[in-house]
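Table S5 (text form). Sequence records supplied for joint modeling of the two-component complex.
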Amino acid sequence: MLCLSNTKSHLALILLVILCGARITTAVADAILTIDDPRPIAEGVRKLVSNFGYVISYEDPRYEYTDDVEDVTEAVRNPLHKYAPGALPKRVFIPRRANFALDVPSVSGSQDMAAVLQKLISMGRDRGGHFRVEQSGAVFHIVPTEVRDINGNWVSNPSIMDVEISIPAKERSESEMYNSIFEAVGSAAHVPVVEGNGVHPEGIASTASPKTYQFGADHEVARSVLLRMLATTNTFHKRTWRLLYDYSDKKYYLNILYVPEVTAKTS
Amino acid sequence: MMAHKWVAVMTGLIAFVLSIHDVIAQETACQTVAGNWTDPTSGSWAVDQGTIKATTGAYPLSGQLNTSGACTGGVYAVSGGFSSSSGAFTLTATWPTTIASRPSSCPATILYNGTVLQPGCDVASGSWQVSGSGGSFRMTKACDVPNGETTPVFDEWEPGDATTAIFKQQPTPSSFNYGGRTFEQTFPTSGVDTCWYLGSPVDEHTVGPPASTEVANDGTYVDRVGPGVTALVTYREHNKTPCGWTVHQTMSIACSTGNQVYVNNNILSAFISDTNVTDGRADSALATVKLGAPPSRDFVEIVLNTLFRRAQ
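The corresponding structure-token record, covering 579 residues in total, follows.
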């Protein structure tokens, strides 16, 4: 949905903000993105993708410090009566919730978006994780750099998508392409990666047999491989991802996000 | 004069062959040319498509051409052939022998060689020949918008992902072959995901992916619906089951004038219990698979390992 454009018209901006609902409120010449979420940077990215139509990926840091996570087991799970004593399911941890407001000026190009993203990652730096912005033209990646260790000290937390991977070239379905990337990244970064939302096959197709593509990688940065794969398998819609870390299981879930066409955006 | 005609015929043939080649390169082709077409001179071609001839592999065409322009009021008998493997056709309009007095402005025969074009199969282009002269044409017809679709039928479980059902259906009326036309699914309104919780590493599933596909040559298409293995495992491990999601699918056909919606609110659903997965499409088709016993870590790993091995 078109929620914001790069228009400098106050009237148009106000109208668009109304269309966007209550989560975005206006200042005089720009907008305030109000964020209240366990993953505030990821949520900010999601809103910017939705509002401006840029491809922006996000990757969680690998949380270690107990103060950076929250036990929500009692709040989210069903009653435990069906479990035998001693066979209770694992506890559910999520990143600790945070909130802030991000001032988003009108965005008329990639440089403006880069500035907004720099401002976004500077928010809430006292906990959760530290990030950097990678830019390639109009494509951005929010990449983790540091996280607090079990003692609460900030330590390096390199992105698992920075690793170089190799995948033997052959015909693969989209599912097989994802699995080959998960396997290669998991093996190189020593952190399991599994499918989240939007990865497993869904939707209409002419036949039950999945389409296949010639696909492989030779010592290529994992982030580039995934970006290339998404562009290969869907030429109609731009897509990006949210790589979310599960503190309970110590693994990443890859969630695929569709990027809307925002006609008023320039890049 | 003979040489001139020969060049015109050859030009037409080359264009015909090239148009066939272009379409063969695609996965599917328009399966029908039947309908009321309007040519560049506002002539109206009413084209009927017969049943395929085993001897030629082509569909015979018949109908009528009502001309306009210089030959206003001309009524021609139309015959021809159509190849469903390429979408290419020939149409020959002949002045009826029963009408002796043919105006000089009306040619004896009019020949159209063309191809029905995707995505909507409501535009055709090619070359025409009349009395030794010729040129190119582009003609159009009203888009064949379905009035709905047949009740989905469960076809199979997705190989490598036993949680995802593949449903098969076709646009209606099913007497018309929509093969080769492009259909799209969108999700303009959000559904509900009762498995998701704030902070979950698996994103909320309240819309499906936007997707488009050409309908298969037999006029059918499939739809994959299901939660996916990881969602099944994660939500069982987190004791969220029984839970599931529903999304609201809108189906449209891509016409040359823009998309036309023919199904407004297909409910797609996936439901995970402790022992089963049930996927549904259009509220009327459900598929259930038994995937194990009440959750335990051992069972989950068995399921994962089994499915992962199958996907290799």
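Note: The radius of gyration of chain B is 26 Å.
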